[in-house]
Write a structure and sequence with these properties.
Elements (H helix, E strand, L loop, with lengths): L5 H25 L4 E5 L13 E5 L6 E5 L29 E6 L10 E6 L2 E9 L5 E4 L2 E4 L2 E2 L4 H7 L1 E5 L11 H4 E3 L6 E3 L5 E5 L6 E5 L41 E11 L2 E6 L2 E6 L4 E6 L2 E6 L10 E10 L2 E6 L2 E6 L9 H6 L5 E5 L2 E12 L13 E2 L8 E5 L9 H4 L3 E2 L3 E5 L2
Antiparallel strand pairs: 1-4, 2-3, 4-28, 5-6, 5-28, 6-26, 7-8, 7-25, 8-9, 10-24, 11-14, 12-13, 13-24, 14-23, 15-20, 15-24, 16-17, 16-23, 17-18, 18-19, 20-21, 21-22, 26-27
Length: about 425
C-alpha cells in the first residue's frame, strides 16, 4: 500500500538533506552563489514541487504522471489525467524530490516568485501572489488586485497552468484513441484519421468550413458520482496530483491555452472556436481575425514561404482572465473576451463545456500533428470554494501574501489570516 512506503520516503529525505549540505559547502568553496537543498514534505505546491509522491509513466499512453503517495494504493490505482487509464504501482517506490533555493535577494521578491519562509516554527514553500500594500481578492476562480481583475500574459500562465491533454501521448487501446475523442460535424469527408494517428484535412477545392470537434473526457480520479472512462465532461479545476482527495465540488475552468502544430501542404483558412470565441487564421491573406461577444478584430500575420513537402506552423491560442490571446512566432495579440456565463443549472453548464475546442478549414491540405491543452489555475478562497474571499486591511510593515499552487490542499495565508513579513522569507527557489 502507499502508506507502507512512508518510512522509506522520509529516510530518503534525510539523505537528500545531507547531500544538499555537501553541495552547498562545495559551492561556497568555489565562490558560486550558495544553493541549499531541502526535501518537500507536503503537496501544497502541487505537481511542480511535489511532496512524497509516485512518479510513473502511464502504461497505455506513456505520458509522465506524478501522484501524491498518501492518496493512492492497491485499492485506489492512479488514474492517467491524459487518457483515463488506471495504472499499477507494482515495483514503483514513493520518493521525495529535493528543492534548491538560494539566499533571499530584495529585487527578486516579485509576483509569482516561489519562496522559502518561516511561519510559526515551521518552514514552507509558497508563491508570492500579493505584494506589500495590495488588496487581494479571489472570486469565481479569478484573482483581483486592488479591485481589478488580474490578467496574466502567456508567460505567467505557463508558470501556473496544469496540463490536461496532449495528443502526442495516445493510448494503445484503440477504444480510447483520438478517433474516439474527436467528432466531425455533418457528412463532410474533409477530415480523416490517418494511420500515423493524426487528423488530416484534404480538400483542394474550396468548400464550406468543415469542423473537427474536441471532446474533453473524464479523467478525474474519485469523481462523484463515478463516470466511465471515455465519457465526455468539462475541464475542471482537478489536479492530477490530488488523486482520490474528496472535494464537495469541482469547478468549471473556462480559461485554457491550446498549443497547435500543423503541417500545411496547401494553405487555406483555419478556424478555431474556444467555447464562445471564434478565430480565423487566413494563411492566404496572412491575417488573424477574431469574433467574440465583445467585438471583432484583425491582426496581420508574418508571411510564410510554403514548401510543397509541407510547412510546419505552430501557434498558441487561449482564453486567459477575460482575454483572448494568440501567439505565433513574433506575433502576440490579445483582445477582450467575455467569459462563458454560468446559468446555475449544472447540466446546462456542463453541456456548454463538453466541446471546448473546435478546428475547421475550408480548403487546402494539412495535418494536425500536435494538440496540447493546459488549463489556468483556479483560485479558491480560505474555505476552498469559489465564493468571494479578500484580504483584511493591509499591514503597515512590508508583507507578502503567499499561497500554494495546489489550491484545494494548500494551507497558507488564506487560512492563516495574515501576510508574511519580509524578514521571514529566507530564500528564493532556483529556476
Amino acid at each position: 500500500m502507499a502508506h507502507q512506503n512512508r518510512p522509506i520516503v522520509y529516510v530518503n529525505a534525510l539523505v537528500i538533506v545531507i547531500f544538499g549540505v555537501l553541495i552547498g559547502w562545495q559551492l561556497r568553496k568555489s565562490g558560486a552563489p550558495e544553493v541549499y537543498q531541502a526535501p518537500v514534505v507536503s503537496g501544497s505546491m502541487g505537481q511542480a514541487i511535489p511532496g512524497p509522491h509516485y512518479a510513473l509513466q502511464c502504461y497505455d499512453c506513456k505520458i509522465p504522471l506524478i501522484v501524491d503517495a498518501g492518496t493512492v494504493g492497491d485499492e485506489n490505482l492512479p488514474i492517467c489525467f491524459n487518457c483515463g487509464a488506471p495504472n499499477s504501482l507494482e515495483d514503483i517506490s514513493a520518493q521525495v524530490t529535493p528543492v534548491g533555493y538560494r539566499d533571499m535577494e530584495e529585487g527578486f521578491l516579485t509576483r509569482w516568485r516561489r519562496v522559502v519562509f518561516d511561519y510559526q516554527d515551521s518552514r514552507y514553500i509558497k508563491r508570492i501572489v500579493g505584494l506589500p500594500g495590495e488588496q487581494i481578492a479571489i472570486e469565481d476562480g479569478e484573482l483581483f488586485v486592488d479591485g481589478e481583475l488580474y490578467q496574466k500574459d502567456l508567460q505567467e500562465f505557463d508558470q501556473l497552468s496544469s496540463l490536461v491533454f496532449d495528443s502526442r501521448f495516445q493510448p494503445h487501446d484503440p477504444s480510447y484513441n483520438l478517433l474516439n475523442r474527436f467528432g466531425v460535424r455533418g457528412d463532410d469527408q474533409g477530415w480523416i484519421y490517418t494511420l500515423d494517428k493524426v487528423f488530416a484535412f484534404d480538400a483542394p477545392v474550396k468548400t464550406r468550413p468543415q469542423w473537427l470537434d474536441y471532446y474533453h473526457w473524464n479523467v478525474v480520479a474519485g469523481f462523484v458520482p463515478p463516470v466511465e472512462r471515455g465519457t465526455s465532461t468539462a475541464i475542471f479545476d482537478y489536479l492530477p496530483y490530488n488523486q482520490f482527495i474528496p472535494r464537495s465540488q469541482l469547478n468549471f475552468v473556462d480559461d485554457f491555452v491550446v498549443d497547435v502544430s500543423l503541417k500545411i501542404y496547401e494553405p487555406g483558412v483555419v478556424g478555431l472556436r474556444l467555447l464562445n470565441v471564434e478565430l480565423e487564421l487566413d494563411f492566404k491573406q496572412f491575417e488573424l481575425r477574431s469574433q467574440a461577444d465583445t467585438g471583432s478584430g484583425k491582426v496581420s500575420l508574418a508571411k510564410i514561404k510554403w514548401d510543397d513537402k509541407g510547412t510546419e506552423v505552430k501557434f498558441r491560442v487561449g482564453l486567459i482572465d477575460g482575454l483572448l490571446i494568440f501567439a505565433n512566432n513574433d506575433v502576440y495579440a490579445e483582445s477582450n473576451a467575455q467569459r462563458l456565463k454560468l446559468t446555475g443549472d449544472y447540466n446546462v453548464d456542463l453541456a456548454a463545456r463538453l466541446n471546448p475546442i473546435s478546428i475547421s478549414t475550408d480548403e487546402g491540405i494539412l495535418d494536425i500533428t500536435h494538440l496540447r491543452i493546459a488549463r489556468d489555475i483556479y483560485w479558491l478562497g480560505a474555505d476552498y470554494t469559489a465564493n468571494r474571499w479578500e484580504t483584511e486591511v493591509t499591514e503597515v510593515k512590508p508583507a507578502f501574501l503567499l499561497i500554494g499552487d495546489n489550491q484545494p490542499v494548500s494551507r497558507d495565508c488564506r487560512q492563516w489570516g495574515e501576510a508574511i513579513q519580509k524578514d521571514a522569507i529566507v530564500g528564493i527557489l532556483s529556476d
